[in-house]
Specification:
Elements: E1 9-14, E2 19-28, H1 30-47, E3 51-62, H2 66-74, E4 84-87, H3 91-102, H4 106-109, E5 112-115, H5 118-125, E6 133-134
Parallel strand pairs: 2-3, 3-4, 4-5
Antiparallel strand pairs: 1-2, 1-6
């Protein structure tokens, strides 16, 4: 299935380390988060709670209001009690993602980190030579 026509991101799964990799692109909207939540729920249903890497390096525009970010921070995540690494190369995007983390419930604050590159995410998680397979969406 051609993921480019279906959702605002590409999703991959690494079975050895049980990692979901989501690579956003283009315009990031509230609909992007809804599509991510749907995908994450499907992954949890199939594989259980997994580590998640969310890659924002190819985002061209964040088209969300600040109140949307705050609301997202208070919503219950589909994947819980596992590490989550957010990847953003642009300093202003890293700042937004870090701020978003401050609105997460206290039980999730320590499981999320923001890094500059995908390689940094792999290092942070102790993952060497990952083999990601595309997820059909």
């Amino acid at each position: 299935m051609d993921q480019t026509l279906q959702v605002p991101f590409l999703a991959y799964f690494e079975p050895t380390h049980q990692v979901l990799l989501v690579r956003f692109r283009g315009k990031f909207t509230i609909e992007s988060t809804l599509a991510l939540n749907k995908t994450a729920r499907a992954v949890v249903e199939r594989y259980g709670n997994v580590i998640a890497i969310l890659d924002f390096t190819d985002i061209a525009e964040f088209a969300m209001d600040l109140r949307d970010w705050k609301e997202l921070g208070h919503n219950r995540r589909a994947i819980r009690d596992r590490r989550r690494v957010l990847v953003a190369s642009e300093p202003n995007v890293r700042g937004m993602l870090t701020l978003h983390g401050t609105h997460q419930s206290p039980s999730h604050v320590d499981d999320t980190s923001v890094v500059r590159t995908l390689d940094d995410a792999f290092r942070e998680l102790g993952i060497k030579a990952p083999k990601f397979d595309p997820l059909p969406l």
